[in-house]
Design goal:
Blueprint (H helix, E strand, L loop, with lengths): L1 H21 L8 H23 L8 H4 L1 H17 L5 H8 L2 H13 L5 H32 L1 H28 L15 H26 L10 H21 L3 H8 L2 H12 L6 H22 L1
Helix pairs in contact: 1-10, 1-11, 1-12, 2-4, 2-9, 2-10, 4-8, 4-9, 5-8, 5-12, 6-8, 7-8, 7-13, 11-13
Length: about 300
């Protein structure tokens, strides 16, 4: 069954990326905040459901204990939601998926971990792809500058990189938070530590979503729920993918991880089919190089 859950997770997260883009509108200034509100609402509902249906004794102080990690993940997602208002999902998602490689580098830099030569090769392949994407960005970047202005066009292109870096720091911090010996989480054991962390993350996202909703009410930003259908679907797919991910990794994680790394491939195909996104041949080549590097890294880390 773990393989079924792995494939479902990959499709759910790929679909979430599609609907995030489909529900984002370049001309609506606070559209990325609407996404945050809906994701927070769905995650909050899921967290409450988990607390009501499980026998876990959750300590609310874990919200504060896990806050550094939660904020990394939430801020990184907010960067992604802002960026996809202006740039193609098929361009942004492969860049965002380099977070795993960045986390590996953080482990080398700050923990002094040694990694296999082939892992360095995989990171090098990803780096070549990123440099290539940055180089080929000039033509589409020129068009974006005319449409958005130089400052906003630069910020928009920067957002996928911000996501990757901040998400990598979140994953890096999780190394300490998800280890019994170093975790500051309260009332945990080997069986529930990941569940406690996920509940803390989801509840924090719900609180952030509520704060943003109040901010939008104060600013008198319209939030017509029927018009947010695509955002709501994306939020449900995101949260459902988190649920199936747990079961996917409970089986053969070494095989599941590379399959899950194909989310960016699924996202690219869905964006091409349903959103009719078109990139240049050179952009597709360098995106392909990034994807190869990501898959290499996932396979090598799963060994």
């Amino acid at each position: 069954m773990w393989l079924v859950f792995t494939l479902v997770t990959t499709l759910l997260w790929g679909a979430a990326e599609l609907f995030y883009k489909k529900g984002s509108h370049e001309t609506q200034k606070y559209d990325h905040l609407r996404v945050c509100v809906l994701v927070g609402a769905v995650m909050g509902i899921h967290a409450i459901f988990t607390l009501l249906t499980s026998d876990i004794a959750y300590d609310p102080m874990n919200l504060i204990a896990y806050l550094p990690v939660s904020l990394c993940y939430i801020v990184s997602m907010a960067c992604s939601f802002f960026g996809i208002r202006f740039i193609e999902e098929s361009l942004a998602d492969p860049i965002e998926n380099t977070a795993g490689a960045m986390c590996t580098l953080l482990c080398v830099i700050f923990l002094g971990e040694s990694i296999a030569p082939m892992v360095w090769v995989a990171i090098g392949v990803i780096l070549v792809g990123i440099i290539g994407i940055s180089y080929t960005e000039k033509s589409s970047g020129d068009e974006r500058k005319k449409r958005l202005g130089k400052r906003l066009a630069f910020i928009a292109f920067l957002m996928p990189f911000c996501y990757a870096i901040i998400d990598a720091f979140g994953s890096f911090l999780d190394i300490f938070f998800l280890e019994m010996e170093t975790s500051p989480l309260i009332g945990i054991n080997e069986e529930n530590i990941e569940l406690v962390a996920n509940i803390s993350y989801e509840l924090t996202f719900a609180i952030v979503g509520l704060i943003l909703f109040i901010f939008m009410l104060i600013k008198k930003v319209p939030f017509e729920l029927p018009k947010q259908k695509d955002k709501a679907i994306a939020a449900v797919c995101e949260t459902a993918g988190q649920l199936t991910y747990v079961y996917a990794m409970s089986g053969n994680g070494a095989v599941a991880a590379p399959i899950l790394s194909c989310v960016c491939v699924v996202s690219l195909l869905l964006s091409r089919i349903f959103l009719h996104e078109k990139l240049t041949k050179r952009q597709y080549i360098f995106i392909g190089i990034i994807i190869v590097g990501i898959l290499m890294l996932a396979v090598l880390e799963g060994e």
